Amino acid sequence: MKPTAYDSTDLITQEVLKRYESTPDPRLREIMLSLIRHLHAFAKDVKLTSPEWLAAMQLLEETGTWCAPGRNEFIIFSDALGLSMLTVTQDYQRPEGATEPTLLGPFLVEGAPKFEMGQDISRGAQGVPLYSHGRVVDGQGQPVKGAVIDVWHSDDRGIYDVQDHFETNGAWARGQLNTGEDGRFSFWSVMPVDYPIPQDGTAIRMIHATTGESWRPAHLHFRIVAPNLRPLVTHLFDRQSERLDRDAVFGVRPSLVADFVRHAGGAAPDGRNMDGPYCTLEHTFVMAPA
Ligand code: BEZ
Ligand code: FE
How far is the CA of 63 from the centre of ligand 1 (A)? Predict the structure, then answer.
């Protein structure tokens, strides 16, 4: 009797690859054929059982239920498995001197509240006041005017607005600013702190069952978009964090570790008189050509 497609696992793989060879788009064909080869090889390698695969499917189903605007649980899996950093790193041809990108994370919200330069984006978030300022320039050091900067970060409890009754409380420690003619930006907010990735979803179950490493070092997130320049998604990490070498999602790059300078009080760079502790951060972002 002629062998059928299901007589051996190798025949199954061949049959499936043959079918997907007809994918019209060349890039999609390349991706699908490679994905099938690697997925099948993985399942054979670990001798994946049907109950194990069904459990994985159920985990993915549950993962979908944790997703909403401002929280993408699939991104947390991608981040924790290092795939986000891998794609960011191989995809971003970075000219010498351009700011390093890092992962986006799950908490970007499109259409964040807009602020004028120098305003306070914390909207009442708790924490030590932080004044951040600096410039956005291109590879020639020329100021980039009208760049759109999205900033978002945690409060001093280590949570984000999207983890804190976002539907009713709205955005805090999150905002959008435009650089001026001189490429400068500035805003007040509060100091971010180290925080564990969300403890209530599915990705944390994988982490608890494997590495146990769920903390991120304190950071601010930035997304900077400007005409004719490559959009930049990056973070600035607090040099004083003790977890810079143990980021749960592998996002730290030495060039993104910055000095969040602690002050006891006194006049801030914008002239505001602070009667208690506050911090300052100064940074220049260098954007790569589109
Ligand atoms: C974040 O940086 O906001 C983040 C990244 C990965 C998982 C959870 C949070
Ligand atoms: Fe974050």
Answer: 16
CB-ligand 1 contact for 109 (6 Å cutoff): no
Which domain does 184 fall in, by range? 73-286
Mutate to test the pocket of ligand 1, among 84, 107, 160, 223 (most ligand atoms within 8 A of CB): 107
The residue among 145, 154, 223, 152 whose CA lies nearest residue 184 is 145
Residue 118 located in a structural domain: yes
214 and 141, same structural domain?
yes
Same domain, 27 and 121: no
The number of domains in the chain is 2
59 assigned to some structural domain: no
273 in a structural domain: yes
- Pair of tokens at residue 69: 């605007």
pLDDT tens digit string along 178-227? 999 999 999 999 999 999 999 999 999 999 999 999 999 999 999 999 99
Question: What separation in Å is there between the alpha carbon of 76 and the centre of ligand 1?
Answer: 7
Write the DSSP string, 145-202.
Answer: TT-EEEEEE--TTS--GGGS-HHHH---SEEEEE--TT-EEEEEEE----EESPSSSS
